[in-house]
């Protein structure tokens, strides 16, 4: 790792914190609000690759754990024990998966390939960790109602994928390693 890698990791962890400052949309039927933070996960994986994207999200979690304030969801270790905890813990693996897939597609990265990578890592992987956690804490029916997140997450998949394709065209070396 060089200084550039460390700067990218810190930048994308900070970007994810900033996305957390966008007002959350609370839903009356589920204790987890809709936030923009998963866009940070998708952008980290898409633009930084597997290793740096996963590390950026691990740094993000470390910052939450030590008390960096988050407008939506609080901070400190207690956040990880609440209904949002599983989704947060899924962020590093989600970013890593997106990055790994994006690295495989990099030479022929298209909008559809980028969308596939972001949907698998940013939705499927994060939900695979977050939904069982939510089901344990809030009940199976509540966890099943998390399908309300899908429209917003699909919009985030589109945004992150479009950004990844544009960045690849203008700065092709950012994720090529």
TrEMBL record:
Domain of life: Bacteria
GO cellular component: plasma membrane
Keywords: Cell membrane, Membrane, Transmembrane, Transmembrane helix, Transport
Record localization: Cell membrane
Record Pfam families: BioY
Family stated for the protein in its record: Belongs to the BioY family.
Official protein name in the record: Biotin transporter
Species the sequence originates in: Thermocoleostomius sinensis A174
Keyword Lipid metabolism belongs to the record: no
Keyword Protease in annotation: no
GO molecular function term, any single one: biotin transmembrane transporter activity
Main location: membrane
Topology relative to the membrane: Multi-pass membrane protein
TM spans (from-to): 6-32, 53-72, 84-102, 114-136, 142-167
Listed InterPro entries: BioY (IPR003784)
